[in-house]
Every structure is written in structure tokens, then in C-alpha cells.
Amino acid sequence: MDKLKIVGGKRLAGEITISGAKNAALPILCAGLLTSGDLALANVPHLHDVRTMLKLLQQTGLKVSQDGEQVTLNGAAIDKLEAPYELVKTMRASILVLGPLLARFGEAKVSLPGGCAIGSRPVDQHIKGLEALGAEIRLEGGYIYARAKKLKGARVVTDMITVTGTENLLMAATLADGETVLENAAREPEVTDLANLLVAMGARIEGIGTDRLVIQGVEALHGARHEVISDRIEAGTFLCAVAATGGDIVLKNTRSDILDAALDKLREMGVILTTGPDWIRAQMASRPKAVSFRTTEYPGFPTDMQAQFMAVNCIASGASKVTETIFENRFMHVQELNRLGARITIEGNTAFIEGVEQLVGAPVMATDLRASASLVIAGMAARGETLVDRIYHLDRGYDQMEVKLSQVGADIVRIK
């Protein structure tokens, strides 16, 4: 199993190109199931989760051709309306094949999903929404069986804001009869990116970017070309690395307008930020100041950035309070950060952090995707050597993180 060996204390300087967004690419790849035409996608990141999704889509009969970050999908010969457990168990986003298969072919059999162990994240909202659109659904033997001769438009109000739930129902509604209204829809930039692709494929969607999406079903969707948006979480992670280590880096192929909540907190920490249409420059010459925050749905502070900011707070001057409202299990990195000398205590869904002047390198273990990133940041700020184990979590969501960081001065290598 691969590990990362990090020798801390190095300032960062140079340029990093941000990859396409994992959380946008996965639903967009599933949209290939909705049409028999060619879907030509650019800026698709090289990630373990993307490879898993392509493997899952190929076993349905979807044709996939790939050239670097360009992926072309063709759904003319889909003949297997199933997502098996072996492929679904490692990745929760596999549930996103349910809506498109059901809408276009009238049936689907999808294994209940796995993924990061950061909370229950139930799929009941997906099921409730598809039933409102007229699907008959039963759960049996760990699988979701869904049928519908033709989905019918309806008003769907989810009990909670759910990103994958919104994406699944949005894709299903594009081919339903009549009008569908999705209330309490997720507003994340990745949802907007999917909606923009669907419009390019011939879907009729109003309210993109708001919490109320109105979809007029069409008879069929056609092929399209689309570039996946850049990964705001990858960008935010590298900005946290600069906050923790000091230095001066420029992020290219990124957008500041989808990172507002995180950028505000970085400025509060003392990072000097300059932004352009597709770049962000971060300069840090002092010890960071502690910042408190509460995770919430977009456009609030993203849960996917909580662990990385906590790593910076560990070495910040002052005390801070971090409240996690999205996932009940998302503090598993705390005991690993404490192994490096951090002072963090947990009460319920709130972590209290007392900043220390210096962390000290130690062997640590990644427990989920964003926890891995927080340990890399902490290791880069620590004195001495840190070994991060179980980095397969990291590879699920970051494209060659250690290569990008070593190019800007970090002392970080992968050990096979």
C-alpha cells in the first residue's frame, strides 16, 4: 500500500494547475447514459473515482474513449441496466446511474453505495424523489430495483439539501413527461455545471444556480461538448497548504467566484490573495491567525474544506472552534492531527482547537479523502518527517497531489 513521506518546514513558491472537479465529473459522466449521441468532455481529472465510474459505465454497454483529459462517451449500445456491488462499494457517486437509466430505459438495478466512512448519507431522498416521478422502487438483497414505463413530472421537495439527490432527480426529470419542480435543490457549482451540460444536450431547465429547479421534460437528449469546471476543493486545499507553510503560489485554471466562503476565511488567517478570471495568487509571510467556522451547504463554508482548515488552525495563533453540520462522522482526522502534536478536543459536532507553535512529524493514517489532505498539510508544516499511510483515499479525489506540491518546493514523495 502506498504512503507519502513528507519532510516539513519548506515554503512553497511557483505555479500549480488545478484539475477538473471530481464532484462535477462524476455526475457529468453519468449523463452519458441519457443519450445515444456522442458526449465529448474536456478537463476530466485523472482520479481513481473517475476510473471506477468509467468502468461502471462501460459495463452497461456505454462506449468510452479517452485521450488524456478528454473523454468521449457514446450511449447508443447500452444493454445492461445494472450497477453491480463490486464497482459501487467503493464509491457513493455510483448511485448517480439510477436516475438516467430509469429515465431513458424504464428500469435500473443499482447496488446500495459505499464510499468514505464519514457518515450515513442515506439514499432515501433519491428514492422518494423518483417515486414522486412515478417510479416503482423496491430494496432487496442490497440492491435498488426501479421501474417506470415513463416518468411523469411532479413537484419534489427533499427533506434535506442533497447534492447527489438533486443531480439524480435533475437527470431523471429531463426525460420525464411534463414539468418537474425540484424544491430545496442543492446550489453547488458542480450541480450548476451538470445543469449547463444537460441544457447543451437539449434539456429545458430554469432556475440554474438557485434552490428551485424547473424542468420541462423532452422526448430525447442529443450529444454535446462540455468542459468540466475546475476543482474548487483542490484549489482550496493548496491555498491551505500555503497558509500553513508560508510562501507565494499562483493557482491556474481555477475560479475565485466559487470559493468565496473559503477565501474569506483565508484572508482572515492572514493570507494575501489576488485573483483574476482563471487564477488565484496566495502569499503568506506570517504565522496564520486562528479562524472559527461552521460548515453548511453552498454558498456557505464547504464541509469538504473543514479538515484542511483545521490543519492550519492547529498551528495558528489563538484558539478556534469548528462546527460540522453536514456529516456526523467527519472528525476522524482529529486523533491523527493530535498525534502530530495538535491540541484538539471534540464535544458533539464541534471541535475546539488551541493553536501550537510547532507540530512534530509522526506516522499517521488517512481515514477518508479530505482527512488525507489535512494530514498532508499538517505534515508539510511539521518539524521532521511525517509518513501518511492509506493514501488510496487521497488518490480518489486528488490528481497527483504529491507531484504538484513537490514542483512548488514541498519535500514530499510517494513510497510504493
Considering DSSP H and I runs of 4 or more, what fraction of the residues is helical? 25-40%
Binned strand content: 25-35%
Most strands sheet: 4 strands, mixed
First-residue to last-residue Cα separation: 7 Å
Strand numbers in spatial order across the main sheet: 22-23-1-24
Give the strand tally: 24
Low-confidence stretches: none
Shape, principal axes of CA atoms: elongated
Radius of gyration: 21 Å
The average pLDDT score comes to 95
By DSSP (H or I, 4+ residues per run), the number of helices equals 14
* Helix-strand category: alpha/beta
Could you give the topology of this structure?
Blueprint: E1 3-7, E2 12-17, H1 22-30, E3 38-42, H2 48-58, E4 63-67, E5 70-74, E6 82-83, H3 85-88, H4 98-105, E7 107-111, H5 124-132, E8 136-140, E9 143-147, E10 155-157, H6 163-173, E11 179-183, H7 189-200, E12 204-206, E13 212-216, E14 224-227, H8 232-245, E15 247-252, H9 260-269, E16 272-275, E17 279-284, E18 293-294, H10 306-314, E19 319-323, H11 334-339, E20 343-347, E21 350-354, E22 363-365, H12 369-381, E23 385-389, H13 392-397, H14 401-406, E24 411-415
Parallel strand pairs: 2-15, 3-14, 6-7, 10-11, 18-19, 22-23
Antiparallel strand pairs: 1-23, 1-24, 3-5, 4-5, 7-9, 8-9, 11-13, 12-13, 15-17, 16-17, 19-21, 20-21
Helix pairs in contact: 1-2, 1-7, 4-6, 5-6, 6-7, 8-9, 8-10, 8-12, 10-12
